[in-house]
Amino acid sequence: MSDHVSGAGKELSGAANGAVIIVSGAGGAGKSTVSRLIAAAFDRSVHLNTDDFMASVVSGWVDPNLPGAEQQNEAVGAAFAVSALSFAEDGYTTIVDGYLFPDGVAGLAGACAARGLSCHYVVLMVDLDTCWARAGNRGEGRWPLEFQPFAAVHERFADIDLDERHLVEATGSPETVRDAVLSAFRAGRLIAT
User: What digits encode the pLDDT tens for the residues 105-117?
Assistant: First the structure.
């Protein structure tokens, strides 16, 4: 990847093909806020949020955290991946955020590699109490905020089997977290395999 830092170290220029940067983590970890800040650091960028794609389901919607949502989650994930790849192939650095676990990331990383695109993966790590407080402070969301499914997803991220280079502590300010992610990205530590 031929990204270079210019000026104050906040603006990055991409190569002909853009990178895909996956920002994942539990609810309330700050994925959307940090993803938007990361996207703003690039000359040409896109921020795709899985929640926006999930909200596209009009009839037959199932809460994505509940049993029985697997088929819906797979369909939404596929549409999400196609969009990310399309933007990246057109030269946009594409920041995607949502509940993306290593198995799903491997599929997207493989699709990126087949197209000559780089794929990067970071998981924002925050304790359950902080995540729950942040989620509650957001106000009403697209679907009900229930503690049990929320805590179950958080536990999956807390127990994630992933090389430490992909983990970023996210209890600080969104700008501090953005800077940590961009630093790891520029150093090549977030490459997904």
Answer: 999 999 999 999 9
Domains and their CATH numbers in the chain: 4-186 (3.40.50.300)
Q: Specify the pTM.
A: 0.87
Owner of token pair 């996207």: 39
Contact 165, 190 (CB under 8 A): yes
Q: CA geometry: angle at 70 spanning 157 and 92, to 5°?
A: 65
What is the tens place of the pLDDT at every residue in 45-72?
999 998 888 888 889 888 777 788 889 9
